[in-house]
Fold:
Amino acid sequence: MKLYHTLILIIFFSFFSQVARSDSNLPEESSFKDCPECPEMVTIPPGKFSMGYYGGVSKERYEGPVRRVSIDYTFSLGKTEITNYQYQRFVEDTGYVSGTGCAIWDGKTFFHTKGKDWKDPGYGRAPLPEEPVVCVTWYDVKEYVSWLANKTNKPYRLPSEAEWEYASRAGTSGKFTWGNDPNGGCDVANIYDSSAFTPNRPWEPVKCDDGFSTVAPVASLKPNSFGLYDMSGNVWEWVQDCYFMPIPLFPRDGSPVEAEGTCDRRAVKGGGWSSPLSWQRPTFRGRDPLDRISHLFGFRVALDLVDR
Structure:
């Protein structure tokens, strides 16, 4: 009789485990690379989510209105932020001269520093190959993406803000990508915490420790349910969208918001290792000139899955 009951319990829990997985709409991670030096890409499934937030850190930084976005296509997003190694291969292949005069933290504020660029972003040491490339402008990023598309003959591009926020949430709906606990993100996000604390910074660190006082090598912490790393923290990520506030109600299909004429600011997402906690929310929207260059700014790429 004991054996019979044990078998029934095994069948019961096995069945409901399968049901839970099938209802999640989160597939097992599917990743690929189009060349040895290309970024590893993760397939992102179609889905719907509520984008934006009825509020913000100020009236000037309103993150709404909230609108329902339907992404009815499969696309791919970089598993990590683009690394120094990957960016170096682009520079070596093309001879491209990247932006310079990068803004770095001097202990009190960020200031543009002559001679600082992606090769020397003001860390006080050489950047590591596996760390995310920083000190790149939106123009630099677009040049890299164009090179990658030509090299692979694949439609690589920057993600839209909607795609980025959808992928960052990965099926969650909390205030942060890790939930609602402001101090609960150190296992998934390199954020301003106890190890990064500096006395003159005008915001408080979170009460946890991710183990990194500054930038971290990509994929050092845990991924989200889509298999993406560092969607919160580490470095800010440029996206395709022209910045408008409030957010236009359309499009709602995952495509980027573009200006009819000149766009003077582009959106950046995700926060950085020294950013305030409120800026780490997936709905928070950076708004920066296209030539903005900072050792907190990097990027990841997207790819349309056409004929793959």
User: Anything to note?
Assistant: The chain is about 20% helix and 15% strand.
